[in-house]
Specification:
Bound molecules: flavin-adenine dinucleotide
Subunit structure: Homodimer.
CATH class of the largest domain: Alpha Beta
Largest sheet: 7 strands, mixed
CATH superfamily of the largest domain: FAD/NAD(P)-binding domain
Catalytic activity: [thioredoxin]-dithiol + NADP(+) = [thioredoxin]-disulfide + NADPH + H(+)
Number of helices: 6
Keywords: Disulfide bond, FAD, Flavoprotein, NADP, Oxidoreductase, Redox-active center
Family: Belongs to the class-II pyridine nucleotide-disulfide oxidoreductase family.
Number of strands: 19
Protein name: Thioredoxin reductase
Shape: elongated
Low-confidence stretches: none
Mean pLDDT: 95
Helix content: 25-40%
Length: about 325
Amino acid sequence: MAVHTTRMLIIGSGPAGLSAAIYGARAGMQAIVVQGLQPGGQLTITTDVENYPGFRDVIQGPWLMQEMQAQAEHVGTRMMWDTIVDVDIAGGTPFRARGDSGDEYVGDVLVIATGAQAKWLGVPGEETLSGKGVSACATCDGFFYRGKKVAVIGGGNTAVEEALYLTNHSDDVTLIHRRDDLRAEKILQDRLFAHPKISVLWNQRVDEFLGDPMGGGLTGLKLIDTVSGQESEFACQGAFVAIGHAPATELFKGKLEMDDSGYLVVEPGTPKTNVPGVFACGDVMDHTYRQAVTAAGTGCMAALDAERFLATLEFVRHEAAQAAE
Ligand SMILES: Cc1cc2nc3c(=O)[nH]c(=O)nc-3n(C[C@H](O)[C@H](O)[C@H](O)COP(=O)(O)OP(=O)(O)OC[C@H]3O[C@@H](n4cnc5c(N)ncnc54)[C@H](O)[C@@H]3O)c2cc1C
């Protein structure tokens, strides 16, 4: 077992963690990034990315994350192949984290960038057609379905917002919900029902995504009526699963403040958690925007605030040492 000590420990290697690392390493904080089970984060499971600033042409998600990692390493970040299984933050700085490998990581500041995963239905065709007609992010992928017939699956705020957003690209949007009423806020429901491009299919459960992953992609959905049990097919070229996200915060339960959905709570407009010296950035603290560029932005903020925290901490330690002499 090895102990890795640093001024800045970062958990997570998506856009938030790597942006924090780039700023942190350049500020001399010897950033260590523990990568977790998905090195590079969520963008490594997508293909075309067209909205990350700086690239005129469509780029590939995995390529973007390789470049981000290379940039982080180039400025001095140490990348660790490990997954954190326990953290000790109760005693304040320095913070300790234990990896699956048995190694221990100690950081004067801790940056949490563990992200959030979209919830999926877990039915046949969903995984194989992901990126080929099946998506969990209308803001990310809606543009690719211009003029096409699309479906949104879900009944909460996210589903209704995704359906409304998709009307920017498609004239034929259908919201599919397994019950006969929506959980979404009334104002969103009013906008949805009044929208001429949106229809709603009630009491329908998606049982399978249909199409050819090696050919034309998604062609439709197999639906089951939740009241009669009757089976039907719904033709569409795009399907957006909008049944929520799960933030990766299991590790921090009872240790950091969280909201009812498990997202880390930060001081508004900052990445500061309720424990001084622990910062959160990216999707793990943001259930509203959930974009690579916003994750990178809050990663930058976390590193800048971490640097200020360390400067104060080191000044206090220096003063205390002088007083003791
Ligand atoms: C299919 C798909 C397509 C998308 N397309 C776009 C797009 O076109 N444009 C766009 O802007 N956004 C897009 N997004 C959203 C974007 O990917 C996310 O908003 C962004 O990746 C969030 O970054 P993050 O760094 O906060 O977290 P993530 O990217 O989720 O990274 C989380 C990191 O934390 C690590 N981790 C988790 N737990 C642990 C642990 N215990 N120990 C160590 N590490 C851990 C993981 O391994 C991972 O490296 C897409 C998302 C998906 C799923």
